[in-house]
Amino acid sequence: MIQPLEFPICILAFAILLGSCNKSHVKTSRSEGIASGYYNEQYRPQFHFSPEAHWMNDPNGLVYFDGEYHLFYQYYPDSSVWGPMHWGHAVSPDLIHWKHLPVALYPDSLGYIFSGSAVIDLTNAAGFGSDEKPPMVAIFTYHNPILEKSGSNVFQNQGIAFSLDKGRTWTKYSGNPVLKNPGIRDFRDPKMFWHAQTKKWEIIMAVNDRVHIYSSSNMKEWNLESEFGMGIGAHGGVWECPDLFPLKVEGTDIIKWVMLVSINPGEPNSGSATQYFTGEFDGHKFIPDNSNIRWIDWGRDDYAGVTWSNIPGRDGRRLFIGWMSNWEYATVVPTTVWRNAATIPRELSLIAENGNYILISKPVRELTKLRSESDTVSIKSQSFTGEKEISTGEISLMQSELLFDFKFLDTRVDSLGIILENGLKERFITGYSAAQKQFYIDRRVSGNSGFSKNFATISKAPYFAGTDLKLHMFVDASSVELFVDDGRLVMTSLVFPTEKFTRLILFSKNGNVILNKAEFHGIERIWP
Ligand code: FRU
């Protein structure tokens, strides 16, 4: 997403960058961080990935290789607002603890390095490595700001690069671009995957408010297979950062293909969000199961999420991570040294229900390693009406995992939920309204929101809970991720309280609710 006001700055910076593409960027980041305590600034996530300093947006190039999960990401190393895009880089042995590595891809004469993906070329199809030493290959969008400024429509083209040293250093292919723009303004974000049946590499990429699927035998020449999106799905804005992958339906042998498509704007709660489709894919064409519009996350702050490639078969999970922000305010959120973070990594699965396939998102199991043993509180069964404060012992709410198991016996219960509150009476409210059959997140009076008129809102998600309800929440300095009923509904939200939330309050309107049990965990920070 290009921020129009920043455009002249981008051009200037681009001109400078073209002259210095191969220089490593000045390492101010770490020392700036230290000035206020390493990863200790107000609002700094403690167990989410964020860059040491400066701007990040989409996750890119998610690939597992040789014991490491790679997280590349849209990065501007010179400022904490969006600018000429690079690929930042971090690796993790466990999806949780991240080590920052130098910038992987710099802009060059073909343009900025926009979003894309990475794979391990196991058959050496592109010829960059050997069968014994398979290369990591990245495919990304070159976004040429000079051409864009000139009024041309062909400023986004796809390029590739390879690494023979586990993503540490990269060589761009001399024949770039490998997929030239056919005259379409928005032509970007290729996600590459291996299609086993046709034995071809494929990409799915965003093209205006559609996706295109291409195939290739060598990653250098791409053939258009099909287009998807006309007359189906949400079209409030441009489509971005698609993904396409097979998933086995739980408890069956049925394989379905899942397509993720981010869209901006057009989210049901305003701004950016990611929709998904389920269907069949034969390597050529995607046929959707139905025309329902469905969202992977109903919160306002999960965008451009995609999945890891090359996860070993013995693991077999489909692992996802998103950018935890929204283009409506991402450039102005009140953080200092850095701007923006990733969601917690999630495992995606599919269940069949009433003839529909539903995408489930769960926090990855590795997160339980961060539970602090000394900081665990179990709450016994109790009933309540109105508001009831619950003690969380020594646990710092701002760095916690909260699990609740509710039962409502009283069918008159209109609404129940959880309030995080501080001494200034700022409140972040998570509620379920049985009457409206919906979840809501109310951050209207949750603290610092003056940076954007679009931030202090209520977001809503249709949901029917029956009489039992399980809530699972992760709170981390400036974010709350809510997983309802084992991942059937997810809502990810940023929040910037002026002071830390210290009180946990349960509420029920119009009736008695039983809290069957609750468990709270302090979560250890992942940074040294
Ligand atoms: C999505 C996006 C992508 C683009 C990138 C630029 O957030 O707009 O479509 O490649 O960001 O940073």
Features:
single chain, about 525 residues, mainly beta, Tachylectin-2, Chain A, Jelly Rolls, 11-stranded antiparallel sheet, 5-stranded mixed sheet, 3 helices, disordered N terminus, binds beta-D-fructofuranose
Provide the structure class. mainly beta
**CATH superfamily grouping of the largest domain:** Glycosyl hydrolase domain, family 43
Q: Architecture of the largest domain, CATH level 2?
A: 5 Propeller
| CATH secondary-structure class of the largest domain | Mainly Beta
Which descriptor suits the 3D outline?
A: globular
| Number of DSSP-assigned strands | 33
Note poorly predicted spans: 1-35
How helix-rich are the residues, as a percent range? Answer: under 10%
Average pLDDT over all residues: 93
Description:
The chain is 5% helix and 47% strand. The model is unreliable at 1-35 (pLDDT under 50). It has helices at 7-19, 29-35, 145-149, and strands at 54-65, 68-76, 86-92, 99-105, 112-120, 136-143, 156-163, 171-172, 187-195, 200-207, 210-216, 223-228, 238-248, 255-264, 273-281, 286-288, 294-295, 303-307, 318-323, 338-339, 346-353, 356-363, 371-379, 382-390, 399-408, 415-421, 427-433, 438-442, 458-462, 468-476, 479-484, 489-494, 503-523. Strands 23, 24, 25, 26, 27, 28, 29, 30, 31, 32 and 33 form an eleven-stranded antiparallel sheet that branches. The chain has a five-stranded mixed sheet with strand order 4-3-2-1-20, with no helix packed on it. It has 528 residues and is mainly beta. The protein folds into two domains: 9-239 and 321-338, 5 Propeller (Tachylectin-2, Chain A), CATH 2.115.10; 365-523, Jelly Rolls. Bound molecules: beta-D-fructofuranose. Beta-D-fructofuranose is lined by residues 1, 57-58, 74, 85, 114-115, 141, 188-189, 240-241, 304.
